[in-house]
Amino acid sequence: MLDDGAPRIAGKRVALGVAGGIAAYKAVEIMRGLQRAGCAVRVALTRHACEFIRPLTFRALTDEPVIVDDYAPENPDPIAHISFSQQIDLFLVAPATANLLAKFAAGLADDFLTTTYLATTAPVIVAPAMNPQMWHHPATQRAIAQLRADGVHIIEPDRGEMACGAVGPGRLSEPEKVVQAALRLLDAHGRARDLTGERILITAGATREEIDPVRFISNRSSGRMGFALAEAALARGAQATVVAAATSAPEPCGARIVRVSSAEEMLRAVMSELPDATIFIAAAAVADYRPVMRAPQKIKKSDRRLTLELEPTPDILAEVARQKRDALVVVGFAAETERVAERARAKLERKGLDLIVANDVSQEGAGFDTETNIVTLIARDRARDLPRMTKLEVAHRVLDEAKRLRAMQMADGSTAKTVR
Ligand code: PMT
Fold first, then answer.
1. Does the CB atom of residue 399 touch ligand 1 within 6 A?
2. 2 alpha carbon – ligand 1 mean position (Å)
3. Cα(272)–Cα(48) distance, rounded to whole angstroms?
4. 237 and 277 Cβ atoms separated by less than 8 Å
5. What's the longest Cα–Cα distance across the chain?
6. Which 8-state DSSP code applies to residue 47?
């Protein structure tokens, strides 16, 4: 059982590959971030990377040889790509150029980084950086799609002004974000696969209830909390399906994502996925009301007041709990701004849930569109206040509790309801 949800990465060995791009200098900051987190970092550069940054910089900061060419006379190990690739817990390439991505995707092995990619059994994560035109090119997008299919984790480039003056996506993701993504992946691979066999169905994001073809009612949910639950579930060996409405957070690698827009669509998708699930977690911010009528054309502006008539949306979580069958654990969230625990407990009772995650969304660093969250886990037999932690850590705590409740339900069939 996990005790604190904290990442387990001290002493992990990371191979940092650096390809030839203007962002190569940022690899130093990435390397330092990994070292600060307790990782042992070895660095390898492509020949072109050496045009942008000297191997000596990395050698001085890691106190390890930096490999550019494993056939170089000064390299003592003639099959360095094999030994190097077998001794690492993670292979991170930042920046990854269009050329390197294409080579990885095609399985070409004509230098140290490409041979290491083919030879390693460690998880691989790449942070592309290039001109927006090159990023959008179908050849690059084909390579990215192929790499995703091969299980490579991609850290999407940021949008912004490039060194060449172009504006768009292609800038290397901020070093801090690259480090966090690498640490999350290392953490995931270090975790016990204690949820193997579980099938976890999660709702995430903000539903959109259309007013007319261009306007809708929605909220500020980014989907980060729901995606973190999927990421944590996958790291622990479970299967994860996310029924996701509008989101702005990056999708978790390896989860099945079913896209929906409105509460009605979310209800239909959840009900069709539910028979397969063993744990259901409703992290989505579902609109409570929708317009009674959706105008078929854009509503024209006028000087008169406009009244929208709203009706309640279907309560997806309550419907799942109503149809609950044996040994399905049903977990809800409660986003509240006052009398948080009391109201969350009332929701637990009213909706017939096994667990509710009380979320005081008025607090700094909690709730909508934040990296962290502050929650209380309330089950029928106990409640636990958690301090502020990343949404991934919260997700692990929620899963710990769901796992405990599932074990209790399996042991005591009398607590389960029958299918209606
Ligand atoms: O997505 P993030 O930016 O990471 O933000 C995370 C979050 C704040 C959205 C998340 O932590 C959270 O609190 N989610 C629940 C938001 C919410 O709608 O709370 P509620 O108290 O209004 O609803 C209670 C529960 O019923 C929730 O589990 C909700 O998913 C569910 N619900 C609500 C209405 C409805 N029509 N159907 C539902 O299933």
1. no
2. 25
3. 51
4. no
5. 82
6. T
